[in-house]
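Changelog excerpt

This revision adds worked examples to the README so contributors can see how folded entries look when concatenated. The first example is reproduced verbatim below.
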Amino acid sequence: MCSSAIVFYLAFWGPILNERIGFSVSAAATLAAWTAVAGAAGQLLIGRFIDHRGAGTIAWMPLLAVPCLMLIGLVQLNAVAYIAVIVLAHVFVIGGHGGIISICGIFYRPAIRANGAGWATSMAKFGAMLGPWLAGFVMDHGVDARGTFFVFAFFPVAMVVLLVVLGRIQKSLPADSDGSLQVPAPALR
């Protein structure tokens, strides 16, 4: 839910926020398109590490997003600095989101894995609705475009905490259980 909330906040409000920060309509739209490409690159980057290190490794992506979001929310950046930071934020936020989606089924037994992953991703839809609504709500109540980035820095923090817990659970699973990172001992014949 946290991941979807921030991803959909950035997707739906991104061009509007870029415009309110000072970019022209066409520049705001172009920046939004390039940040989506950066997010896809982040997904490719994190995908390389998930299989070998487990769920806990995904946590570094949203963790790195927090200073980016807080920097935008708290500091008046010039255009070049804003572009650099918003691109990095998208790499980390969307990369982490792709990682989370990729592992959501590993903790379910094979017999119910598809059902479990379906339920997990359907719960994320609540975040997808919450993110854009919350952005509109806080802006209606006096928070400016930059300030929304500070508000939404909460979501990656929550993601990191939850991912670290999930990673610890995964590492503690016995070797013969689903989702374990441990290699089961070969069967003796």
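The second example, added in the same revision:
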Amino acid sequence: MVEKKKKGEPLDMKRIWKWMFCLMTCLLVCGLYTGKAEAAEPENLPVFAPMQAVMMTAEENTVYQLPSEDSSPLALLPAGYALGVTAKSEDGWYQVIWQNSLAYMKQTALREADVYEASAALLAQQTKQAENLPVPAAGNVVMIGDSRTGQMHNVVGENGWIWIAGYGGGIEWFRDYAVKQAEPYIGPGTKVIFNLGVNDPGHIAEYIETLNLYNYKWREKGATLYFATVGPVGENPYHTEWSVENFNTRVREKLDASIVRLDLWQYLAGTGFGTVDGLHYDGPTYLKMYQFLAAGAGVG
């Protein structure tokens, strides 16, 4: 069932540009699972206040199923591992997104990080995973997006695409970071799928100008750019459905005609979607999202 849309004024996302989610996606699980028996759920869970931030483990530490050290440990994360934080309690716990679901870590285990530090940490972990893999050649699909793209990658796994995910990043992150990562793969036959905007939907003019510019540059190299509209959101404290729909409509209308439009919003809103926090989707939705984008770009 499609989640009910909430009307509201567009947010000033510039103030929260550095907020990010879910850097654990795009990675193999780095933790060491334990065989500890499942603990009984506490009768009274602490009250959590919503927040949005990206944080990194200061040292090796544990992520738990519930906000209690008596709860089952899900993984032992190494120092420098980044996570999206969605809420905090007064008794010292953070609520985080782990493997497309909610989990918990002690506040003393995490420290703040910015978008560039977090992206560098992600790139280092991806590079370590790819040490024994061949370097992809031009002609592949290059998928560029935010934390939703990172989690979609986690669900899909390695499929031959080039995945570039900017957790909490928007158009500034795209210009400063993603373009540099994408350039080595841009060539004849390359298909670039772009799916950013939920983190800074007020920067409409910048998106239009930037996408048209790189569409021109990449078309000269034989590549095709696909603009996937921002997917719908559910109930959450920071992103409204009004801002998403407004962004999609205005950007789509002003893009160069050679940029292929993929209406991801319409597809998910029409077929149904599920979220874990009002913003990030559940596994089945990410699979649908991937299948829609792959079909729209004519690739597997």
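Reviewer comment on example two: The longest strand covers residues 48-57. The chain has two domains: 15-112, 134-297.
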